């Protein structure tokens, strides 16, 4: 007969294995059903960043231009940002 500490270790390993399987199943479910949503969200952020860069290029005020560029940086642009024209 095994000592009680060994049984506790075996039970703990079984619980960890169940938890790992559950996490893997949830990850697979999330990727399968929400992968398109994430791609669409990424595309939306990139589009927003491009719009912010365009707005910065058309804006004359240096403060407002810099705010548009900050928004673009936060949204993860695909193309390089227009340089700040403050100085």
Brief digest:
The chain is mainly alpha-helical and 87 residues long.
Characterization of this structure:
- The protein has one domain (4-75).
- Helix content is 79%, strand content 0%.
- The protein has helices at 4-58, 62-75.
- The protein is built from two helices and no strands.
- Helix 1 (4-58) runs antiparallel to helix 2 (62-75).
- The chain has 87 residues and is mainly alpha-helical.
Q: What attributes does this structure have?
A:
87 residues; mainly alpha; 2 helices; 79% helix; 0% strand
Query: Biggest sheet, open or closed, and with what strands and sense?
Result: none
What's the overall geometry? elongated
Helix-strand string:
HH
Number of strands: 0
What is the fold's blueprint, element by element?
Elements: H1 4-58, H2 62-75
Helix pairs in contact: 1-2
């Amino acid at each position: 007969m095994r000592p009680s500490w060994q049984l506790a270790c075996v039970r703990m390993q079984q619980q960890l294995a169940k938890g790992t399987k559950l996490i893997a199943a949830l990850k697979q479910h999330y990727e399968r059903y929400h992968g398109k949503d994430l791609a669409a969200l990424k595309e939306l952020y990139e589009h927003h960043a491009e719009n912010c860069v365009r707005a910065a290029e058309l804006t004359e005020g240096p403060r407002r231009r810099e705010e548009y560029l900050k928004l673009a940086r936060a949204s993860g642009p695909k193309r390089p940002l227009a340089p700040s024209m403050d100085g």
